[in-house]
Amino acid sequence: MTTNSIEPLWGDPHIERNVLVFSNNRFLIDLCGVYDKNLAELEQKLSVQILRRGNQLAFYGKTEAINEAKAILTELYQRLEGGLDLEPADLDRAMRKFYCERSKNEKSINRLDNSNVSYIEIKTRKKTVEPRTAGQREYVKSLLNHELSFGIGPAGTGKTYLAVAVAVAKFNSGEVDRIIFSRPAVEAGEKLGYLPGDMKEKVDPYMQPLYDALYDFIPERQLSKLMEEKKIEIAPLAFMRGRTLSHSFVVLDEAQNATSMQMKMFLTRLGEGSRMVITGDISQIDLPRGTTSGLYEAQKLLENIPDIGFSYLTSKDVVRHRLVAAIIKAYADVTE
Fold it and tell me: What is the distance between the alpha carbons of residues 113 and 302, in angstroms, rounded to a whole number?
């Protein structure tokens, strides 16, 4: 990929032209998006015009806007060159990383300090996962460096997905002998006993997000075999009582819906050679009124223990649709 120098157009020093030349046209097609959707979004956000001609992108606008657009597209192109997929959320993530509001009353944008960014990859046999935000990178570092880690933050920040990815990577490398996932089966207006089917069929809907994440990293046939052999288990939190979980990677998801007693019970299951991750969103507690969230209590009691890692994700770390981040921020502003 090469670049041509900026040149003034039509005698106007504020309107300039700059060209990027890309060596791989297939990557360029993925970079631009379907019907050049990614380019259109950048044009709208940065007030810059981007024209595609063959393997070139020509940028028209103010120098600052051109430089920002080039920086974002260059980073995404390098991601493609590195063998990683480019998903719709990646463009929004790149823009969030490069920009922030100076104030609520000012609409100018600034480049964020990116000097301390370090790249982490979680490699599984089916796919490679890369944390997409600074918050996610710190979260993954905590998962790798602590035997007990907490990931606390809103929906869409990758808490569960990244924990599952690390668990599968640790299992594939032989660092743990099995993976255990658990969730509180909190009743939401319907009693479990009234639902059709056996116990597995009753609780499986609560566990579906964990199955979805696992299917991303392990082929379906292999996953079924591993579950039959009990090398991967998915079970309600209540089933953890009385067990000692040794040489395992253990994940408790939706931990905000665990009671204080359940949380204490789960934390004391940690055995030799194991790692434990607790994820949850304190703003989405579904417990009955007056019942203390075990996650909230554990945060207060354990936060100052050096060997326990706490990671706090925010709306800036949301990697779903860009509106999800805006919705989470709007609700957070109301509750503050």
Answer: 31
Phi, psi of 27 (to 5 degrees): -65, -35
43's CB contacts (< 8 A; 6+ apart) are 49, 50
3-state helix, strand, coil in the chain (%, to 5): 45, 20, 35
- As a residue count, the chain comes to 336
- Give 180-228 as a DSSP string: EEEE----SSS-GGGSSS-HHHHHHHHHHHHHHHHHHHS-HHHHHHHHH
Angle between helices 88-98 and 63-81 (to 10 degrees): 130
Q: How far is it, in rounded angstroms, from Cα 131 to Cα 121? A: 7
Rounded Cα–Cα distance for residues 252 and 277 (Å) = 6
- CA quadruple 23, 24, 27, 28: dihedral sign: positive
With both helix axes pointing from N to C terminus, report the angle between 37-46 and 63-81 in degrees, rounded to the nearest 10.
Answer: 150
Q: Which residues contact 84 (CB under 8 A, 6 or more apart)?
A: 128, 130
Parallel, antiparallel or unpaired: strands 101-103 and 7-9: unpaired
How far does Cα 93 stand from its chain's mean position?
Answer: 11
Percent of the chain scoring above 70 in pLDDT: 76
Q: List the beta strands (DSSP E) in the chain.
A: 2-3, 7-9, 12-21, 49-53, 56-61, 101-103, 106-109, 122-123, 128-129, 148-152, 178-183, 232-236, 248-252, 275-280, 308-312
> Tens of pLDDT along 162-203?
999 999 999 888 889 999 999 887 644 344 554 555 555 656
Q: How far is CA 63 from the centre of its chain?
A: 33
Whose tokens are 């067990």? That residue is: 243
Residue 211's closest CA among 238, 243, 244, 233? Answer: 233
Asked if residue 73 lies in contact with residue 31, where contact means CB atoms within 8 angstroms, the answer is: yes
- Rounded distance between C-alpha atoms, residue 309 and residue 140, angstroms: 10
The per-residue pLDDT for range 277-302, each reduced to its tens digit, is: 999 999 888 888 889 999 999 999 99
